[in-house]
Automatic annotation (TrEMBL):
GO cellular component, one term: membrane
Subcellular location: Membrane
Organism phylogeny: Bacteria, Pseudomonadati, Pseudomonadota, Gammaproteobacteria, Pseudomonadales
Xref: InterPro entries: Yip1_dom (IPR006977)
Designated name of the protein: YIP1 family protein
Keyword Transit peptide: no
Species the sequence originates in: Marinobacter maroccanus
Major site of localization recorded for this protein: membrane
């Protein structure tokens, strides 16, 4: 049912969040049927785009990554997405009681995973690594993911809309902090020699 939810969240999010709440998937099933597959989209597209298509700044020459470098970075990016969903989900479960969530079944990972669906899907655009196209598509995907978060959290956690807004804002803040931390970790990893290797 996970992939069915993927398309349902794009077409009729309110109804789909209700269906997700009623289904109550385990974390293992959620990863196997949704996260592992969809997280591959941006990782594989990024690998293809940076090794086969390349990018160009102005009238300069086309730049690509070496196959080994792109593979390393794609694997690390894929792992970071899988770990990020899990960590954010556990944060949601940990703080659910603070916002008087009626739902006691842990649903944080489900909320984090399904909220990230637009970002996973739009990751296909990485196959064409044009900075402006990628930024515009990314902004649209992030905006819809934020909408899904604010729309879905009160439904999934069974809390009033006003508390849901505060809870979703806290989750969004943690997500932004995690993103900044990921950038910092990337710098450290690059300094260890696993950074991008460019080819003409």
């Amino acid at each position: 049912m996970s992939l069915t939810h993927t398309f349902g969240l794009l077409a009729h999010p309110d109804q789909e969040w209700e269906a997700i709440r009623n289904e109550s998937e385990s974390v293992t099933k959620l990863y196997a049927g949704h996260i592992l597959l969809l997280a591959l989209i941006p990782a594989v597209a990024g690998f293809f785009g940076t090794t086969q298509v390349g990018w160009q700044i102005g009238d300069g020459q086309i730049t690509k990554l070496s196959m080994t470098s792109a593979l390393q970075l794609s694997v690390l990016f894929y792992g970071a997405m899988l770990a990020g969903i899990f960590v954010l989900g556990k944060f949601i479960d940990f703080f659910a009681a603070t916002y008087d969530a009626v739902e006691r079944t842990p649903r944080g990972v489900a909320l984090a995973a399904y909220t990230a669906t637009p970002i996973f899907l739009i990751g296909v655009i990485a196959a064409y690594p044009n900075i402006w196209v990628n930024m515009l598509a990314g902004l649209v995907a992030v905006a819809y993911a934020v909408y899904l978060l604010y729309e879905g959290l009160p439904i999934l956690m069974k809390i009033p809309a006003d508390k849901g807004f505060m809870f979703a804002s806290a989750v969004l803040t943690v997500g932004l902090v995690m993103f900044v931390a990921l950038l910092a970790i990337s710098v450290v990893i690059w300094s260890m020699g696993i950074g991008p290797v460019y080819v003409s």
